[in-house]
Q: What sequence folds into this?
């Protein structure tokens, strides 16, 4: 049975992506890194617990992917470019096959996103993964939640509701006619893509931004409350993937997934008219799907949903996921 030190040595301290701004990585009492002159350091942490955020028996590569992706998504929503991660791992036993797959994914993503794993902690306990991610942003260009102004346009990247549909499929609550749709939707649940490029492209152009983790409407509400504004959301405009549209043909159910489904990790942001064209062309030049779904109003904290020009209410409101 491996001890803590051999787990670190065998799985986490070798063959990883190395950055020039890491003076001292894994192996000492703490890491030493260099923040580029004149840049701000942005830091975020997220914990994934077995039984809460992922089911028992989930593929370790999906656990590694999701724990890194959720953190990079938070950095993206701040407009930050990711640089380093720390990994605090609680595992019930040193299962070598599990650790090989898990750490393999961690190293693969570090290389893909050019980030370095600079430290962490390894303890015995119920399965839990905590990642702390850090990145840089130029002064005064980080993206916040409280800057939305009346008449700003509301945009979202990618498509909505896929991850929630994928989870419903895994839980046998949603039937899926084709294997390719099933694969697409469940992969969107297990392997979300953080919008790193989109986040940095929105610096100085978006008036507010966050990542959609708890469902579009619940997350939009955070912007409205922080900014003291209201919003009109055109449900007809909500971006729904082909796979979701084919799997959930009933309009109301598809809209509900798009509005309340969590874990999509798309960016939701507001843009003043003066920056709208620049944002649209930046997104299209990066090949990032980006849809205008509504507009900010002066009606504080009030959200109006519209479908075919009429005010719309969901019959049975299944609000975004809450832990407590
Ligand atoms: P300490 O007893 O000082 O906390 P540890 O033995 O926990 O030190 O860690 C030794 C080194 O290994 C440190 O550099 C720490 O950051 C790193 N480390 C421990 N666990 C992990 C992990 N799961 N992933 C990456 N680095 C880790
Ligand atoms: Mg330790």
A:
């Amino acid at each position: 049975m491996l001890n803590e030190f051999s787990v670190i040595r065998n799985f986490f301290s070798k063959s990883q992506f190395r950055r020039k701004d890491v003076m001292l990585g894994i192996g000492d009492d703490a890491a030493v890194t260099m923040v580029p002159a004149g840049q701000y350091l942005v830091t975020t942490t997220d914990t994934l617990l077995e039984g809460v955020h992922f089911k028992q028996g989930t593929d370790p590569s999906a656990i590694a992917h999701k724990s890194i992706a959720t953190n990079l998504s938070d950095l993206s929503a701040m407009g930050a470019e990711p640089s380093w991660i720390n990994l605090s791992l609680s595992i019930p036993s040193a299962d070598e096959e599990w650790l090989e797959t898990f750490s393999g994914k961690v190293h693969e993503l570090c290389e893909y996103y050019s980030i370095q794993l600079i430290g962490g902690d390894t303890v015995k306990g119920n399965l839990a993964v905590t990642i702390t991610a850090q990145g840089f942003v130029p002064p005064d260009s980080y993206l916040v939640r409280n800057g939305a102004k009346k008449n700003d346009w509301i945009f979202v990247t990618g498509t909505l509701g896929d991850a929630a549909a994928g989870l419903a499929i895994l839980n046998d609550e949603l039937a899926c006619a084709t294997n390719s749709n099933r694969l697409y939707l469940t992969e969107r649940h297990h392997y979300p893509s953080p919008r790193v490029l989109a986040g940095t492209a929105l610096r100085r152009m978006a008036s507010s931004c966050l990542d959609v983790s708890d469902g579009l409407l619940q997350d939009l509400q955070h912007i409205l409350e922080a900014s003291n504004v209201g919003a009109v959301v055109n449900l007809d405009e909500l971006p729904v993937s082909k796979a979701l549209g084919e799997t959930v043909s009933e309009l109301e159910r598809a809209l509900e997934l798009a509005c309340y489904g969590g874990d999509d990790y798309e960016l939701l942001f507001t843009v003043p008219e003066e920056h709208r064209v620049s944002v649209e062309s930046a997104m299209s030049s990066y090949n990032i799907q980006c849809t205008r779904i509504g507009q900010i109003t002066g009606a504080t904290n009030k959200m109006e949903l519209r479908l075919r020009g009429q005010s719309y209410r969901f019959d049975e409101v299944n609000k975004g996921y809450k832990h407590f």
The longest helix spans residues 60-77. Residues 14 and 212 are 34 Å apart (CA to CA).
